[in-house]
């Protein structure tokens, strides 16, 4: 790879920083929502939560 091609590749990667930060922010927000949901599920009866999850898993298999 020539120096010019390498510079062009590096510039392209560097220009993607803004989008990468936006994507990271969205992932962090999604992870927080998942963690909060899991914490809230702990307040409910474990057997009921397992039943709902199993039913949803079965529904997803039928839709796939």
How would you describe what is shown here?
This protein has 64 residues and is mostly helical. It has a domain of 35 residues. The longest helix is centred in the middle third of the chain and has 25 residues.
Q: What Rg do the Cα atoms give?
A: 21 Å
Helical percent range?
over 70%
Structural class: mainly alpha
Report strand %. Answer: under 5%
Count of alpha/pi helices: 3
Average per-residue pLDDT, rounded, comes to 92
In terms of per-residue confidence, which ranges show pLDDT below 50 for 5 or more consecutive residues?
A: none
Q: Which H/E pattern describes the elements?
A: HHH
The rounded distance between the terminal residues' Cα atoms is 44 Å
Q: Major beta sheet, specifics?
A: none
Beta strands, count: 0
The coarse overall form would be elongated
Q: What are the SSEs and their pairings?
A:
Elements: H1 3-15, H2 17-41, H3 46-63
Could you list some keywords that capture this structure?
single chain, 64 residues, mainly alpha, 3 helices
Task: Give a quick precis of the structure.
The chain has 64 residues and is mostly helical. The chain has helices spanning 3-15, 17-41, 46-63.
């Amino acid at each position: 790879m020539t120096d010019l091609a390498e510079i062009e590749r590096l510039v392209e990667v560097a220009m993607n920083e803004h989008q990468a930060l936006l994507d990271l922010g969205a992932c962090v927000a999604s992870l927080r929502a998942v963690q909060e949901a899991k914490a809230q599920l702990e307040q409910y009866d474990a057997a009921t939560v397992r039943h709902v999850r199993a039913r949803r898993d079965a529904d997803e298999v039928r839709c796939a």
